Fold each of these.
Amino acid sequence: MQKSSVLKSSPRSAVPEGPQRPEGPEGLEAAAGRAGGSRVGRHR
């Protein structure tokens, strides 16, 4: 559950080495998948 909290609190920290920015929906999905947050990843 902490991973989800961190993702929502600071999605940028979730994907610091990601080529895409967490500004868009793609970034959020990538961050969730990387951190293991199927909750946001399966939101679509």
Amino acid sequence: KRDDFSKQSLDEYRQHLDEGPMRDMRMYQKLPAFLDNPRMFTAYPEMAVNIARDLFTVDGSAPVPMRKKILRHAKKVGFINLMKDGLKGVTVL
């Protein structure tokens, strides 16, 4: 309905927004602050790459348990940072 600015038409439009885009905006309203954390684009990608490199490199040396390989890189980021950012990420999503 073009050029219909009646209360009923605007209420329907508002309902449409509330059930669609506004619902999504409310759901993800804390995401920008979460992504503002510099570790999201520096430390964590670097950690993931280094873990993958360690897990998939075949060099003929004695195998190191996967847990040790992962923990070695997690220590560089810091366990407190990992826990804090992980919990924040869970609450944001």
Amino acid sequence: MTKLDALAEAIGHEDAVKPPNHHDAYFRDVMTISANAASQLRAVLPKEIVTQLDWRTLRLQSGSFISDDLRSRYTDTLYSAKLDGRKAFIYLLIEHQSTIDKMMPLRMLQYVVDIWSRYAEEHPKATKLPAIIPLVVHNNNRKERWTKSTELTDLIDLDQETLEAFRDYLPHFRFLLDDVAAIDPETLRARDVRPAVLLMLMLQRSVLSAPGLGPWLTQLLGGLLGGLSPRELRALVTYLLRVGEMSTKDLEPIFEQLDPQAKEVFMTTAEQLRAEGAAKARAEECAENLIQVMTAKFGVVSQRTIAVVNEAGMSQLKAWFGRAMTANSVEDVFAH
């Protein structure tokens, strides 16, 4: 494997765990905090599951089970916990699209099987598989509720009579659904979850460019900002600045009015985002220049090479740019 091949493979691995958009990044920032996940799960899981789960054992697990071609649509989080004294998993998938995926029961079953397969590989002496509780959180700012089935058997192309006759020989699977998009705001605000979870659910079902957003946001944040940790507050500010159409200047007085300490985190985060944006712009310009130099010297540059260049940091780009001046091939540029 060449150095370029290794770099391309590393990028593919990073893409497999990196949230594809700001909505999903915000969801993961909030829901990868165990206390937040516990409050959301307690609010939506059936009571018989809530009472039997040992919440003290709730632990975040690594990895994602979503295929690359679907990462622009979904993000997922996996937790483990003791259920009735035995190890179990809770698998959360967030769906932000307003177009409902009618094949979701099949997709969720695939992810559940993937989790079992990984467990079996990691525990070769195991004789049984852990229970997995699958939960889809559906949310969008168009308030379009979930309209498709959560049952796998509803996807089977058989008439009802034949389906009943063959039911024992077909896989039985159903996922739990938290249809946030269908819940009215007052009911959602009354949900017994931690402030960071409530803010995330409310913001992701709202249009953050609507007229009068400032007063609405002030009312929503009132009483909740004080319950956020610095990490949660940074995630909130990042989401508002990246997704909403309110500028730093618009948002600053809201945070100052509601919580002076929150304003400090807000200003620090806003400055970090500005610096990141400027650094990204410089790196993009350097990457573009490097690709132009390689194209002029070596001819057509592959898409794989372009992907590697576009993902690199400034220091790496500068090193490659220097080598490109004397290299005899594209491979020589990335040889060290």
Amino acid sequence: MENLSAFRSDKQRAVLDMVLKLNETGLASVLEFPQIVVTGDQSAGKSSVLEAISGLKYPRREGMCTRCAIEVVLREADKLSITARIIPHRESRRLYSELQNLTSFRETIEDISNLPDLIEKAMICMGLNDKSGKRGPRAFSRDLLRVEMNGPGVPELTLVDLPGLIHATKNEQDEEDVKATHALTKNYLKNRRTIVLAIISAKNDYANQVIINLCKQHGATSRTLGIITKPNYLLPNSELEAEFVSLSDNNDNLESTSNFEERLGSEIDFFGKGIWTTRDSRTLGIDALRSRLSKLLESHLRQKLPELRSELGQKLSQTKKQLLGLGEFRKTISEKREQLFDISWSLGGIIVAAVKGDYEADFFGQVDTSTDIDAQTNVVRLRAVIQYLNRKFTKHMRLHGHKYTIAFGGIEDVLEEDPEQDWDDVEDYDQLAKTLKPKNWNRLQAERWVLKILQRCKGRELPGSYNPELIRLLFSEQSEPWEKIASTHIDHVAKACHRFLLLALRHVTREDIRDRLYRSRIRHALNNEVAVARKELENILEDKNGPPVSYNHTFTLTVQRLRHRKYCSILKRMSRANTTFINVDDSEMTTIDPQVWAKHYVDPDKLREVAREAADMDRFSASEALDSQIAYYKDELKYFIDVVTKQVVERRLIKPLASIVKTSLSAEKLSDKEISDITAEPLDVSSQREELEHLVGILEQGDETFEQVELTLG
């Protein structure tokens, strides 16, 4: 292994040892580690370069080429041994039996001359060759063939030989082969920690070689070392030779021979004459390549290891967070009871805070002003959502709660909106508003409506009065939309509570437990409370439709106010109908105030005569009953809004939320089987937990290794 001694300086060895120790922790399966990739066009001499650098002999056969990525892992050991194993591509979809066949392949040899046969066996297992050595059913494979070489004097280094890039289809190589080789190479080039050994054959125009363009496309030029192979094909003093010599300012050149000793002798002879004598000797030959490559790798590692450390820390934090999201694994029933108690306690705390409007906990997050108040992103703030829904309910009761909108023929409606109330921030229930749009009536139309009902429900009351049952019938018809609006409000509040509880459950436990708790316990309990709330609404509506009763003094004030306005309107109308025009005579101008010249005035005698006219008692009663109904509706509207929001929503839906959770998740009341069913961990979650725990172990061990090596390196 003397050909590998170029890698052996104490400084370089310390850095390479660090990567080796990190690899031993398993970090290579988690993070992208620095590596050397040998790539180039097909038959450009990649395998020869890899042989020269590593000292490993590759299989050679007429027409044979690399048809999968071969990763060579070099490690120092007291005794020489070479082990080959296959790592299936993680995104490849395979039958389980095929995966088992690939992962179970593991062959070890102790004689390096047997390496070609070892690789051939692996190719057969991967389906690239058949047992006779001929081309198998698969032309190329995305699986990785890892060859681990342990021996005295072997440094810690990873070399990857990629399949040669195909220019065009020919013979057995179809279009899929071209795509496969390009895709595999691009995948390695994208790794920002990959050092690319771009093999450029002097037999072909370098401008036409695919690897050069691929390195440019993937930003790999700054970490690419170009290597010119087969320079003996260049005619001395030719233009092509001059181009490749110019290209060699940043590249190495080597000639493949039968063994390392002959290669070294041939290189000395070749580069000791002609135009090559004008080039820097540090850019010529395999020894120069090894020396330059080792320094480049050591420098690259020193630059990239801090990035690795930072990425490792981020990955460790992210993985621990994912593991925490699965919750602590509980085995025994007592542990599972404790788990359920913890969930109940945490969930109860969130509910109490949300009902109070205390949004300091992490669960509530940031306010989303880009969506509605009751949108999914904001429903965690339950108190704000309930307030919002109650305001919407109040608005729709005021705007759409009455079946008829009654105008007073020039007199302002006594049910005018509160001027301090701003409804701009509350949206309509669009569909509900369309179905409950009130019918507009003037005063005369409203009185006719009352008159029809009055005439059909007369009792023994005296003329000019009306049956008290009339107000009940009028109010019942006028308030007909209340039930639908209130029922819709309960639906909206219940939906908000369900969505809130699901989000709260998601915050305190993993998804599978959340779903089981919600479906088997909480949803049923909340639906029961919704049923109680609906029953409460039924009782309120039953009271509403009963005999009208009011002890509110505002009822009398409203009736008086309505009648005052009505009589004033009647008086004005009668006054306008009984006026006389004064024609002031010039001879009387000295006795009449000039301000009343040619003026109208009310004739008291005519007005008194009209007032004595007998009125229609039924119409009079209908008018009086309409005033009473309007006043009663106003009082009952305010009461109904309050009783629905306080007694139905708050008492029956919001207040019981915490007790719903406490009762539903009471571990003392649940059997062992129920607790086991609720807290059972699915197989996929168990597998995920096992994988995450393993990953955390790898990352923590890698972090410790970083600290130890950093202390050693200073």
